[in-house]
Amino acid sequence: MRRPLVIGAQKLFLPLPDAVGFASQLLSTLSGPLSLDVVLCPSFVNLAHVAEILRASGSVVSLGAQNVHFSRGDYTGQVSSVELKALGVEYVLLGHSELRSEGETNGMVNHKIRACLADELIPIVCVGDNQNQRESGLSKATISRDLDDGLYGLNTADISSIVIAYEPVWAIRAGGENTSAATPEVANEMHDFIRSRIASHFSMTIASSIRIVYGGSVDGVTAPYLLRQPSIDGLLVGTASRSIREFLPVVEAAQEVALVDSSAVGP
Ligand code: PGA
Q1: Whether residue 175 has pLDDT greater than 60
Q2: Which of 154, 132, 155, 152 is nearest to 142 (CA)?
Q3: Is the separation of the CB atoms in 40 and 63 below 8 Å?
Q4: Mean pLDDT of all residues in the chain?
Q5: So what's the pLDDT on residue 57?
Q6: Which ligand 1 atom sits nearest the alpha carbon of residue 93?
Q7: Alpha-carbon span 27 to 57, nearest angstrom
Q8: Ligand 1 pocket, 112 CB below 6 A?
Q9: Contacts of 105 by beta carbon, 8 Å cutoff, 6+ apart
Q10: Which pTM was predicted?
Q11: What is the pLDDT of residue 267?
């Protein structure tokens, strides 16, 4: 069974005191063993401070970064996978549409995946169609290209260590605007499609074990419906990870679904 995963990608929403407050509150609410993985991705400047809080708590919540550079050394203004690893980062978001819109290519995503894997960080590779592609019937072609080029040359061990995020660009809230999440059925169909591409490139076993999470206007209302879909293994939460009040219902929904699923599994 695939372990559910909820990722809070806090973008540049929270200044340091708020980011620290959020992490502390989250930990005080989530005591005890969870049946899912929860990952918090603060901004780079908040990362070290949030890392300390998470470490002190015994790591109920994992630390994620929002990006990484594919190399180290003479790259002014960038952040390397070695630096992230040293801070206790476990997951790294890659290929987010907000970075793709600033010029990040699938080739760069591929280099970054390799950098993460070399330092034993778990890449969360974002793929997704935009409004034009959707209206032109090009959603699946776009995602195929992102997967084919982004995952190019990876071996079965590599692919087993990554998470895919289906993030339809047309559903991303982008700063609180009034956007709707994909319907659970549409999201699930795209997750199935992604799984089928992974199966054709690697194997059925890998396709059925890889975690694919959905992102785009997720909140406490949509979360339970999305999570009940068989191919949706978790959620990537942007805007609703700005406040505990909005984020907690998403985590609780995932915990509930995880408990129901585990009780449904036979001995
Ligand atoms: P949203 O962002 O939850 O605000 O739509 C999701 C994302 O950008 O990954």
Answers
A1: no
A2: 132
A3: yes
A4: 94
A5: 77
A6: 9
A7: 7
A8: no
A9: none
A10: 0.95
A11: 40
